Amino acid sequence: MGDSYREGLEGLASAPGAEEAGEAPRHGAAGGEEHPSVAALRERFAEAVQHVEVVAGDEVVVYVPAARNGEILRWLKESEAFDFLQDLTAVDYGGGRPLQVVYQIYSTTHKRQLRLKAELPLDALELDSAVPVWAAANWLEREVYDLFGVHFRGHPDLRRILMPETYAEGHPLRKDFPLRGRFSRAEQTRRALALEHDDFYIPDELAVRRPRLEQGPAEGAQE
Amino acid sequence: MGLEPGREDTPMVLPGGQTFLTTKLDFVVNWARRNSLWPMPFGTACCAIEMMAAFASRFDLARFGMERMSFSPRQADVLICAGRVSYKMAAPLRKIWDQMPQPKWAVSMGACASSGGVFDVYSMVQGIDTIIPVDVYVPGCPPRPEGLIYGLLLLHDKIKGESVTDREIHRQLRFEDPAAVGQQALPPEVVSQITVPFGNSTTQNRASGLVSTGAQLRPRDRQP
User: Fold this and answer.
1) Separation of first and last alpha carbons in chain A
2) What is the ipTM of this complex?
3) Is B87 close to A21, i.e. CB distance below 8 A?
4) Of all helices (H) and strands (E), which one includes residue B159?
5) pLDDT tens digits for B53-100?
6) How confident is the model over A3-36, as pLDDT tens digits?
7) Are B197 and B205 in contact, with CB atoms under 8 Å apart?
8) CB contact under 8 A, B87 and A188
9) Is A128 within 8 Å of A145 (Cβ atoms)?
10) Who among B91, B122, B191 is closest to A186 (CB)?
11) Nearest CA of chain B to the CA of A45: how many Å?
12) Does pTM top 0.90 for this prediction?
């Protein structure tokens, strides 16, 4: 255990930085054989496996083009039995670099992990939804859309999930988003206090929909 | 002969328009109020843990008349806001405050509730006094139960000094302003004034808030 822990630390330290970008990718953990699913991916989608790297000791990361994202994910689930989407998130490294959408998937059959990354240029944040493959992607993609503004084609219900529907300041986790928001604190406070239930839920989701105060008295109240 | 009407109570009038009757009435009313404060706990973060510790047997806020936490705002006297309040929680906080019957008081517990604390970010209310009027601020991150108890004893002192003859306090404590329901407690220009950035940890300021900050390139960022 101690050895693997130390290897993990060394892997962390020697992960490719900007200065070693041109270096040939390393395969497998600590010089071992290549990840079987990565080998299968190379065989099936030869040119679509852009880059493979091992980070943090034994974490295999595969870079795939965003345009072929949907078909690769479906193939991984159907042929490689990656039946569990552990996480779906995104990273913005800033400085105009492409935004990465990250899929962390796991195969309960093979007890195997894989991380996929799809890079999106900041002016074209759009790729296929993973909801048809894993239903678990639904809310995760909504979160990525909410906080990064990535548009997922084919998502059944792509709308904000954390920020209110009426949030007008943009997508907060993007590096070009000012930390304190785009509006003044006074405006943010005013907007926050003006929020109603309907700004967080679509009305059908609420069992009991309360009438809004500004709608005034109900019909027939004059009599 | 005899006492003229209108002069009867003159010898009894104390400075400030108070009489023997009103001071005794004040004493009884304030004694009853401050020793039966029922708290409405609005716990959102780690401060709430300390608040729960203050309510539990070791510190036992029941000693100060807080026999039970009132989880319904309609039976509560004092709102204890413990923890950070996001903008998403601002409207519920104001709604709970509006539902509490008069007279009512508010305690802002901890750095985040009082000023936003370290969370000087887009999603966090910079002090709940922009949302509701606050009587006592308890500093700390989080304050220990002793700190909360001290704050509540300060609130006791404040209640002790209230008088029915003080029209301003009487108005604040007794009358609900319908126009203030759901509104922020401070005017917008004051909110802007007190939430000005302190120049901590980031390179951003309000003037440059509308433009991209241009995140610094860090060589350690792992990138292919």
Assistant:
1) 80
2) 0.71
3) no
4) helix B145-160
5) 999 999 999 898 888 888 899 999 999 999 999 998 999 999 999 999
6) 555 554 444 444 444 344 444 444 444 445 678 8
7) yes
8) yes
9) no
10) B191
11) 20
12) no
